[in-house]
Design goal:
mainly beta; 8-stranded antiparallel β-sheet
């Protein structure tokens, strides 16, 4: 019994440890979207991570889910289109089939699944971009794009407790903030618990608090792409092919 308590102490301390911003840079992109490059540090242990976010209007932009059965890279899929930013999508199995709901251009190509990990849905409906729980999906109408993933990271500007706090990896995430803000992002070498803590307590989205945030497929799947105003792109490449992407276009 005593031995079980020992490893919990540093984990709980890590989950509750304070994070602060060391530096934050912003650049504008096409369609009124912003790229935020934020370096944050866990003050107690000096652990630094980098957060890259594309921040955009939840009402004046539209979400697109891009099926990728051929396993092309995110950069290749974004070029030549009207996309202003993009990240990798949700989980997929060993046969390269999506795990959970996928909707692209109003057509469902993978059904909703109920499982402990994939509790969130990032979607575009006729009401705009939103993040909802799977339990709320039944009443949602006119879905244009959707990707089911998880777990939930933030609810009402508070981190979800009980998330894994020991496994460090790249993390891709999506969320909805106040002031009509939505965002897609990637964070380096962080646990799910610490990512939730960062998003809930550090002003990474600048003038917006985070109402809800959810995890997308991470690790070697993580990828991020942002279109700069001058036509170039800021990108973080994924390390393996993924089945689908989430992208944003201006209305």
């Amino acid at each position: 019994y005593g031995s079980l308590l020992i490893p919990l102490i540093p984990l709980l301390a890590s989950a509750d440890a304070e994070w602060k911003i060391l530096s934050a840079e912003s650049e504008s992109g096409r369609g009124g979207i912003d790229h935020r490059h934020v370096v944050v540090e866990q003050t107690a242990v000096g652990h630094r991570v980098v957060v890259d976010l594309a921040v955009f209007s939840a009402k004046s932009t539209s979400l697109r889910v891009i099926d990728n059965p051929d396993g092309q890279s995110l950069g290749a899929m974004m070029k030549g289109q009207n996309f202003v930013c993009g990240v990798n999508g949700g989980y997929f199995d060993a046969e390269f089939k999506p795990i959970g709901l996928r909707v692209a251009d109003g057509t469902t190509f993978s059904p909703l699944r109920r499982a402990r990990l994939i509790t969130g849905i990032l979607l575009q409906s006729d009401h705009g971009i939103d993040v909802i729980r799977v339990s709320e999906f039944a009443g949602t109408k006119k879905i244009i794009a959707a990707v089911q993933s998880g777990p939930f990271l933030v609810e009402g500007n508070k981190r979800i407790r009980g998330l894994n706090d020991s496994q460090l990896a790249r993390r891709t995430f999506a969320g909805i903030g106040t002031n009509d803000r939505a965002f897609l992002g990637l964070c380096s070498d962080v646990s799910l618990g610490d990512l939730a803590n960062i998003l809930a307590t550090v002003s990474v989205v600048a003038d917006s608090k985070i109402r809800r945030a959810m995890n997308l497929d991470g690790g070697s799947s993580s990828a991020f792409w942002f279109a700069r105003e001058d036509g170039s792109a800021f990108s973080i490449s994924g390390r393996k092919p993924v089945r689908d992407f989430v992208a944003v276009v201006p209305k």
